[in-house]
Write a structure and sequence with these properties.
rod-shaped, 2 helices, mainly alpha
Length: 58
């Protein structure tokens, strides 16, 4: 079993690379959800501002 984790002397590199890839794969969807929320809030804000502008013109 320890030979599996040691991987011929490259275990530290391989397992740290696997951990980094796993962390990034989990982080990506979370960051996308946050970005989506921010963009939707900005769009709603722009719609409110546009309605206010058109109401004040007429």
């Amino acid at each position: 079993m320890s030979e599996f984790f040691y991987m011929g002397g490259y275990g530290a590199y391989i397992w740290s690379s696997m951990a980094a890839a796993a962390i990034l794969m989990l982080l990506e969807p979370a960051l996308l959800m946050l970005k989506r929320r921010t963009v939707l809030q900005e769009v709603k804000r722009n719609i409110r501002l546009e309605k206010r502008r058109t109401r004040n013109k007429g």
